[in-house]
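Reply to dn_fold:

You asked what the input looked like. This is it:
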Amino acid sequence: MTGPRLPDGFAVQVDRRVKVLGEGAALLGGSPTRLLKLAPAAQTMLTSGRLEVHDAQSAQLARTLLDATVAHPRPASGPSHRDVTVVIPVRDNPAGLQRLLASLRGLRVIIVDDGSAMPVAPDELGEVHCDVTVLRNEESQGPAAARNTGAGVCTSDFIAFLDSDVVPRRGWLEALLGHFCDPAVALVAPRIVGLQPAGNLVARYEAVRSSLDLGQREAPVVPYGPVSYVPSAAIICRRRVLEEVGGFDESLRSGEDVDLCWRFVEAGQRLRYEPIALVAHEHRTDLREWFVRKAFYGESAAPLSVRHPGKTAPLVISGWTLVVWVLMAMGSCLGYTASVVVAAFTARRVANSLRPVQTEPKQVAAVAARGLWAAALQLASALCRHYWPIALLAAVLSRRCRQTLLVAAVVDGVVDWAARHGNADDDTKQVSLPAYLLLRRLDDIAYGLGLWTGVVRERHLGALKPQIRT
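and this is what came back:
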């Protein structure tokens, strides 16, 4: 993958989780995991895993590292806030709109009133310190159409889309705009965190596992990656590229943000997730509203699978790795023995792929073990989330399936709790493990209900089809 030349002064930093092999001769990491061999000249350019662009050769190496997803950008500077217009789609949320406008001092703002019962009137917005224009759809056309309406009258180079139930925190805009000094970047998104102090149990769960919060680690936004999309509650787009791809798909009831991200990627653009920039969101904390919203998110998978075949796969897994865990789940002595044999064969394949660089046996074993463990977590998550109706039926009919599903539900929940319980603010009371397990399973049930509803509505099984790779 190639792209426009990166500017001088732009730097990249190798991800700390990437393994350096052969005394700097190769890098192992990224998503999907790949082995990137470095020429001697490239090795000398990387100092402590950092590379700064100063000529065409270093610019090409920096681009290669970024596109291989083994390094992250460290831009020197970015566009000004004067190059940005904020578009806010809103419907029947005057309090949230007023709260948001108070945080946008000095910015150009276009409000798109999407059929509110009480129309948004500029002279009723109170004291605002930004340049505000109000547009109105007499009848609601949905957030995708409202965003397109606002974008259609923008003339700035960049458009920031903010929903009316968010509030950006200090420094959010500067942290995001810096990424646009890379001319290949078309979209950047912040981390979404909770707006209000977490009170009830659902609020405390959302503080650590909101569907909008994509975590604390910076990442490229690519299908199948750790961050495969970003929510449109808060994003900044390059206006020219947004127009080229046709804006948001107004026919989608949900998932229009996922669709936009993937169309950007298909057009050869780069997208970034920047968790240093924070935007607070007013989470749903009523149990019923929360459950319904999770199901609503699930309904988007089927229409997305029609538009982007394969990208909504619940599983992306090696066939050999799948065989290991299926044999293990059989539970018999023969199954355990066969799974060990297949695991050894998998480790041998890993060793062969690492042969071009000097690696110790323990490094090979560690790579193979991480791959097997990651596959196990994928399978456990898919059983409990995407395939739970089938898994539940199998559990009713088979004692062995019942045991497997129980183990999957507990392991998935415990690992997820351990990884996320530190995501909340220090003053937020942590969710206990039993409560987290319960809400995690309710979360999965809701999403799965929405997923299967969408599959039936679309009459398309693509959202349930796994990707099994060789």
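The chain has three domains: 11-74, 81-285, 316-423+432-469.
Hope that clears it up.
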